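A reminder from the course coordinator: this example appears on the midterm review sheet, so study it carefully.

Given structure:
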């Protein structure tokens, strides 16, 4: 945990931005695996972590804006708990560690909320995303679970976004440590990427590195020689020469700061001409987009810059044709790059996404597109110092999508469908880094993970 003042300062800042009533943060509960006694690994809610730091299930935090007091509600362990889980610090001691003086058993939370509601005080809360939390919140507030989202507090959501989006140096340091562990995960994965190896041998090894060095992986490992499927979690293929292996994986630490890195390498360690051709296009898009990162630049503009570079590169390879800038504006590149350039990263891998993608990523100046491809851009608004973003362009040859576009002759003035046909067995390539927006530009976080053709071939040799 950070020092107690970090959490009390955060709560104080939040108090300044939300006026009247109380703010309720429900921590996460244990989630049963396939029967109650064994559960999934406990993962605290990120907003609770940010403002109240404690990493145990069944806690609630309340910031009473009118009284100017913070509370933690939770139960001390009893002898049954001690038998199964061991001795735990008291709630009072835990709360003191995050600068909270007022504690009460969980049963008192009901009373606190009831009294507030009876007096017509506003209870601010963020939209819940887990069933257990929805039931708890629904009972506390006496609101039907389907109404919880609509009744959540936009004032609170906007205040949280404003605070959590801008990472303090201590937070950046935590993210950076996780990129360093990702360095080990990815370089190990690259070295293992030889013909005859089954994907799960690599997936299991790199997940083990995360578990042995910090916390769990920050999202289920994406690892496949079928990288044309963007989030491919099937790990049963045997690696064969001629295929590219996409590894999209990161990890998180005790504080839950995370990394999210993608590398794509040729099975066997040597790029053939066709692989090198497409790889260099994605790498150029990654580097060009990264260099464009600085405060004040809309991320949507950087996304379109990457899209134009991809259109340029694919035109040079004969896969696309016509004017690349015009092709990108018309969305022709989305046949090959159908997703957004990246997303905020922090306590969540898709940071803050549970609060609502449009509230995080868009504003009055930059609105979300409805067009195929651009609509998947999770974040479009202007960058600010302290934001941490992923930059993750890719090129994918998705046979089913190619068939649909070709049958419609869609944007045929920009796409050489005959040439595209010859790439249907290619798979996909994505290259992703975690990038901090600095006062005058950017910094790619963590120990550099091999990325150029020469660096990858050297490492895999
Ligand atoms: N790395 C997974 C994602 O960005 O969705
Ligand atoms: Mn990502």
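Designed residues:
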């Amino acid at each position: 945990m950070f020092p107690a003042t970090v959490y009390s300062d955060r709560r104080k800042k939040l108090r300044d931005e939300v006026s009247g009533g109380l703010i309720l943060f429900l921590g996460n509960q244990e989630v049963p695996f396939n029967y109650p006694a064994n559960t999934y690994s406990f993962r605290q809610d990120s907003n609770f972590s940010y403002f109240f730091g404690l990493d145990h299930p069944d806690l609630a935090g309340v910031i009473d804006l009118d009284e100017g007091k913070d509370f933690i509600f939770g139960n001390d362990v009893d002898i049954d708990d001690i038998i199964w889980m061991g001795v735990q610090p008291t709630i009072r001691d835990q709360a003191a560690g995050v600068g909270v003086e007022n504690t009460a058993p969980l049963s008192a939370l009901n009373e606190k909320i009831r009294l507030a509601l009876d007096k017509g005080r506003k209870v601010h809360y963020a939209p819940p995303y887990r069933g257990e939390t929805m039931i708890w919140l629904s009972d506390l507030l006496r609101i039907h679970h389907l109404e919880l989202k609509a009744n959540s507090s936009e004032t609170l959501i906007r205040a949280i976004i404003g605070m959590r989006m801008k990472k303090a140096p201590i937070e950046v340091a935590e993210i950076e440590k996780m990129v360093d562990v990702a360095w080990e995960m990815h370089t190990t994965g690259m070295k293992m990427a030889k013909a005859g190896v089954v994907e799960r041998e690599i997936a299991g090894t790199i997940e083990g590195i995360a578990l042995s060095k910090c916390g769990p992986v920050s999202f289920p490992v994406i690892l496949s020689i079928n990288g044309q499927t963007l989030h491919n979690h099937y790990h049963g293929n045997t690696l064969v020469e001629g295929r590219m292996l996409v590894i999209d994986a990161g990890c998180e630490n005790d504080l839950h700061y995370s990394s999210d890195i993608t590398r794509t390498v040729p099975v066997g360690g040597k790029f053939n001409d066709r692989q090198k051709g497409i790889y260099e296009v994605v790498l150029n898009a990654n580097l060009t987009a990264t260099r464009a990162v600085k405060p004040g630049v809309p991320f949507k503009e950087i996304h379109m810059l990457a899209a134009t570079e991809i259109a340029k590169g694919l035109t040079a390879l004969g896969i696309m044709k016509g004017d690349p800038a015009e092709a990108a504006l018309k969305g022709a590149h989305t046949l090959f790059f159908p997703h957004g350039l990246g997303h905020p990263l922090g306590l969540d891998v898709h940071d803050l996404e549970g609060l609502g993608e449009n509230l995080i990523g868009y504003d009055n100046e930059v609105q979300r597109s409805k067009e195929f491809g651009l609509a998947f851009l999770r974040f479009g608004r202007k960058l600010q110092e302290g934001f941490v973003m992923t930059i993750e362009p890719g090129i994918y040859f998705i046979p089913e999508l190619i068939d649909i576009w070709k049958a419609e002759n869609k944007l045929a003035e920009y796409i050489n469908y005959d040439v595209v046909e010859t790439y249907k067995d290619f798979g996909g390539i994505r290259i992703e880094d975690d990038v901090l927006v600095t006062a005058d530009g950017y910094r790619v976080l963590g120990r550099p993970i091999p990325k150029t053709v020469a660096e990858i071939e050297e490492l895999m040799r």
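The CA atoms of residues 120 and 436 lie 43 Å apart. The longest strand covers residues 244-249.
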